[in-house]
Write a structure and sequence with these properties.
Layout (H helix, E strand, L loop, with lengths): L4 H16 L6 E4 L6 H7 L8 E6 L2 H11 L7 H4 L12 E3 L6 H5 L3 E5 L11 H4 L5 E6 L8 H9 L4 E6 L13 E5 L2 H7 L4 E7 L5 E2 L9 E2 H6 L5 H9 L2 H19 L8 E5 L3 H13 L4 E5 L4 H12 L5 E5 L11 E6 L6 H8 L18 E7 L5 H23 L46 H24 L3 H16 L5 H27 L23 H4 L3 H17 L8 H32 L1
Parallel strand pairs: 1-6, 1-7, 2-4, 2-5, 3-4, 5-6, 8-15, 11-13, 11-14, 12-13, 14-15
Antiparallel strand pairs: 9-10
Helix pairs in contact: 1-2, 8-15, 11-12, 15-18, 16-17, 18-20, 18-21, 20-21
Length: 622
């Protein structure tokens, strides 16, 4: 119960990829900022990896965050916080790679964390130059969307027997190329918002009544934005750069961001909400800092040219609530998480989705529920100037928010419950049992029991099993003689060598539960919100009653029992599978779920086609 759903599902997806399906391709997992990626990194080795784990990070901030979370000696580490282990001695041994480490220390490690720069083969103490190719059984690459640096590509080739997992917030690299590997799991930002794992988002644009621009400092001629663009004198990029470096334009964004901050801090709020701002350059950041200081706020600038000690001191000032505003220049990006960054002020243009998303990600981390005082606390505000032209980039988040609202409604109404045996019956009343009235006795045991085996017939399978047991005993004896160890220790080593081949079928109960949850999640949290958002359907309306989806007799009951359009669509998928499988969901087997998943894309395409036509026809009639 301490783990989040995307951590559990992400683990099982990677488990299925490598263990059940025995796949060799790199596994890609996409998780938005703030949903528990570091925790998933910690979970992945268990039952999937049979040896050491190498975690590769793209920068020091991310490395430090992972080390702090997974180091058993760090108070409040992931293992303790989520109650993974009750005893610190059970926790995996973590080593932070350094060129001064000797081999004996590395040999004791379960997890080795290092920054990508230390992997370069040109370095004498690079792991590629003194460790065996089979030293690691798993490689986890964090923030894998960074351009495929030759360094970690070289590492995966060198440790070529290792299972490779790539975690990222986007499956597109910074150079625009798709990541190599198979996407095994993706958890959407809309899902995270609906679950409350991350803050919700609001976007504010400062729109000036009039905006005039001059060219080459010629103040005799001023142009409106429309004149510049329509006459082909300048383009939007030029306008956005001009606005970004304008003190006057920046001043208005500063003032609006302060208003948003003051609103969050109002009513004696004890939560230390802060502003995080992004600037074009160091000089630009200093200029913006002065604007905030003039308004009475404690502001600071952080950038990569500062000494490491100064950067760390500034970060401590943030975490200890000694500043109100932090202005960064391409440094407080991935890996930096502070839940009280609640207002994002943008003072620079963005021309691609990835860096914009990375900055917005800094305000996504939610404030702990036990600290929240009002609804506004876990809503992050984004503010920028209209003529930075960030609307297109914001649209992605706007769609995510719309989908999150659909998810919330479906969760509240629990529209995927299958309460009926057939389409025409009324919902039957649930029978309840009052256990306190049951006439039962008490059973007790004592002593030591035994397990006695009785073979009814010596079949070929029985003989094969006995032969297998005999072979195992021979191999265990060989291990005893080779390693000079006792039987129990030899047996333990032997079982570990066989885990990989058998792991996939040891817990069919968990696999079954996983498949059931996946189908529910796919319909309720992904497909239905997508359809409603894509076709502009009013979820709360009931106008889909006339749609052909519900005209067939076996589906006609839905429009009478469903609450609204969102419920209709969810119930349609549920009914479709009930008819296709031929059983109510409670009677499904694992293979039934496999069949359902094989048909999911087909029915989704059909529903999309019907809804598209229906919405077009109705829009044309208006």
């Amino acid at each position: 119960n301490e783990l989040r759903d995307p951590q559990i599902r992400g683990f099982y997806k990677v488990y299925k990829h490598f263990i059940i399906d025995n796949r060799k391709e790199h596994a890609i997992v996409v998780l938005p900022t703030g949903v528990g990626k570091t925790g998933l990194i910690g979970l992945l080795p268990f039952h999937i990896c049979q040896g050491r784990v190498l975690i590769i990070t793209p920068q020091l901030t991310i490395r430090d965050g992972i080390v702090d979370s997974l180091d058993p000696d760090t108070p409040g580490n992931f293992w303790s916080k989520r109650k993974i282990f009750s005893n610190i001695n059970e926790m995996p041994t973590l080593v932070e790679f350094d060129k001064t480490l000797n081999r004996d220390v590395l040999n004791t490690a379960n997890i080795v964390v290092l920054n990508i720069h230390k992997l370069q083969s040109r370095l004498e103490r690079s792991p590629l130059n003194f460790l065996e190719p089979d030293f690691f059984d798993m490689i986890i690459i964090d923030e894998a969307h960074h351009s495929a640096a030759n360094t970690w590509v070289e590492a995966t080739k060198y440790f070529n027997k290792a299972k490779v997992v790539k975690l990222t917030a986007t499956p597109i690299r910074t150079d625009g190329v798709k990541l190599a590997g198979e996407l095994v799991y993706k958890y959407r930002l809309s899902q995270a918002m609906a679950k409350g794992y991350v803050k919700s988002l609001r976007n504010f644009e400062y729109i000036p009544e009039t905006l005039l621009l001059t060219i080459d400092n010629d103040e005799t001629k001023a142009y409106t934005v429309e004149e510049l663009i329509e006459q082909g004198i300048k383009d939007e990029d030029w306008v956005s750069r001009s606005v970004a470096y304008s003190k006057e334009c920046s001043q208005h964004v500063v003032e609006e961001s302060i208003k948003l901050l003051e609103k969050k801090r109002s009513d004696d709020c004890k939560i230390p909400h802060k502003i995080i701002a992004v600037a074009c350059s160091i000089a630009h950041a200093e200029q913006i800092k002065d604007m905030y200081i003039q308004k009475g706020l404690n502001a600071q600038v952080i950038h990569s040219n500062q000494p490491t000690e100064l950067q760390e001191r500034i970060k401590k000032d943030i975490s200890n609530h000694r500043i109100d505003v932090i202005i960064n220049v391409s440094i407080l990006g991935e890996g930096y998480d502070h839940p009280y960054l609640s207002v994002a002020a943008i003072f620079r243009p963005y021309h691609s989705e990835l860096p914009y998303a990375q900055f917005i990600g800094r305000v996504l981390r939610s404030i702990p529920a036990n600290e929240v005082e009002k609804e506004d606390d876990n809503i992050a505000d984004i503010v920028s100037h209209k003529n930075l032209y960030l609307q297109k980039l914001w649209l992605k988040y706007k769609i995510e928010i719309q989908e999150s609202e659909v998810i919330k409604q479906l969760q509240e109404n629990n529209e995927l419950n299958d309460n009926s045996k057939d389409s025409g019956s009324n919902s039957s009343k649930k029978r309840t049992t009052n256990e306190s009235n049951l006439d039962i006795g008490t059973a007790q045991e004592s002593g030591s029991g035994i397990l006695q085996e009785d073979v009814y017939l010596d079949t070929e399978l029985i003989r094969m099993h006995k032969e297998k047991e005999l072979k195992e005993q021979v191999e265990i004896t060989q291990l005893q003689n080779l390693l000079q160890i006792g039987y129990e220790q030899a047996l333990s080593i032997y079982k570990q060598t066989k885990v990989k081949a058998n792991e996939g079928i040891k817990r069919p109960d968990l696999y079954f539960k996983n498949r059931k949850h996946e189908l529910d999640t796919e319909i309720r949290e992904i497909i239905v919100p997508e359809l409603i958002t894509k076709y502009g359907i009013n979820q709360q309306d009931t106008n889909l009653q006339d749609c052909r989806l519900f005209k067939q007799r076996k589906y006609s009951y839905i429009k009478n029992r469903g609450k609204n359009n969102g419920a209709y669509i969810a119930m349609y998928f549920n009914a479709y599978f009930r008819y296709e499988i031929g059983k109510v969901r409670d009677q499904w087997t694992t293979s039934d779920y496999d069949v359902a998943f094989s048909k999911l894309e087909i029915i989704k395409e059909y529903v999309e086609e019907v809804l598209s036509e229906y919405m077009q026809e109705n829009n044309n009639d208006v």
